[in-house]
Amino acid sequence: MTTRSIEELFAEYHPGILRMLIRRTGDRDRAEDLAAETFARAFAAPPNNPRPWLFAVALNLVREDGRRSVRQGRRLELLKAEQTGLTETPDEELERNERTATVRRALEQLTERDRQVLLLQAEGFDYEEIATATGLAKGAIGTTLARARRRLVEAYRALDAEEGHRAAR
Amino acid sequence: MQHVDEGMIHAFLDGELSPAEATEFERHLSVCAPCRAKFAEEQGFVTEAAGLVVALDDVPPGTRPATTPIPLRRARPWFVRPATLAWAASIVAAAGVGYAWRGAPATPEFAEAPVASVVAKGTDRADAAPAPVEVPATAAPAARQAATAERRAAPSAPPPEPTVVAAEPTALADASPAAAGAGAAAGRANAAAELSRDSASPAPAAAQALAATAQYESARGYVYERGVPVDTGASSQRLAFGPATIAEPRRITMDEAVSLLGGSIQLIDGLTPQRVEVIAGIDVAGADPNRQVVRIYYEEPDLGLVTLDQQRPGPSFEAMRRAEEQTPSVTVLPSAPARSRSAMAGPQSTTTIWRTDGVWLALTSRLPADRMAALQARVK
Description:
The structure holds two protein chains of two kinds.
Chain A: H1 6-25, H2 28-44, H3 50-68, E1 78-80, H4 90-108, H5 112-122, H6 127-134, H7 141-168
Helix pairs in contact in A: 1-2, 1-3, 2-3, 3-6, 4-7, 5-7
Chain B: H1 6-13, H2 19-31, H3 33-55, E1 63-65, H4 82-102, E2 118-119, H5 141-153, E3 164-165, H6 169-175, H7 182-198, H8 204-219, H9 235-238, E4 250-251, H10 254-260, E5 275-280, E6 292-300, E7 304-311, H11 315-325, E8 338-341, E9 350-356, E10 359-365, H12 369-377
Antiparallel strand pairs in B: 2-3, 4-5, 5-6, 6-7, 7-10, 8-9, 9-10
Helix pairs in contact in B: 1-3, 2-3, 5-7, 5-8, 6-8, 7-8
């Protein structure tokens, strides 16, 4: 932070942090609030190693936020765009939304630690950075990721099959 | 070597083993069938899990924030105010555009971009002089008003060749920067403000078109100190450069991608696309922010994740590029394809941006420069 301003950090990391928070929470409003809070904390206490620090703070905020069930944010109504020509058919849209919802339920079945490691890796973190952000030993990251990936996939498959059965009935 | 465990397989697939460890790992796999089977299974989990995580990004297509004012229960930190976001976006856009131009040949053919609803008649849109527009008698009143505002904004314009602009506001928003110049930008911002303030019966479409132009230019650093100066009531425009209003990438089919790009698409020869998405141009450094970008994902064991972005930039983008080339404060280096870091694919990724046949392309991967160049040569 001595050499990089908060604006630079914001420009570089905000998109990734927001994306990760949306993946984690499934709620864009909440993700935006948490991202803003993350940078507010960076502004108050400038980190030396900003990337793992910012992402770790963001993930911790998700946890705290979940515990408090505090929603101090804003309401942002989402509207469908007028233009497109790219619109999906209702069936396609339904299918995609269902898939997203199923993946989200699968993700919720993971432990917090597994989720964090998985989402950080998806943001391009290497094992060293994941270890720094989560406090895990670097040597444990591969095993944690292996477990997290397997559990996500298996949970998704199970939920998907369950929904397939329900739909068939 | 003992049998490989799951952690080691994932570390190998994530590129986390040292060269010596990786060699040993591969050697063991070559002689151990159970470990090969295990490896194949874990590889499947890695690929599938990556796809599932990306699926979490999905939101309904075309979703955008409402244009109604957003109630806030607490003050936002200064760095998430819209004006600051526009400023921040300008850094990203300017950096990306700078890189994009370094190796790009000046080609006028973007005026033909099929996505454009602008019809240029007998004139090169890249002319830096502000070009008054002639609106057909059948055009909507809103468009006429915008054209008037355009003339007001640049009263000293030399008589240019006539240009016909389609009567929809988005076309005007897009066409206006073709007449770019920083002065004209400020003029248009004022004109839009005037329009929304003065009109007894406001023409929101025209005001919005002009506001969009001012916004476009402000995001490029022309008048960024104005931040978001135009109150047209179009909140979505005001926030257009904050992450809040950017549509999530959306998965599309290859056919949709081809039609979006005007009938043809560039692919990496010999690789199989894993996923195709459409992304807002503003989200992609160096791309025309007013046009959508098609992103193709490839994933191969020996290459890792590779993305190929492409779009047909609008005529305004090309004109803006030329106008900025003539601006002394902007350094445009004539050099080989630029390499820049990409915010999209992680910290060690590099992006190569170039143009060919009127198509803007950006290749992103974590490969070293020589392999990146080889991959670029396979794009056709």
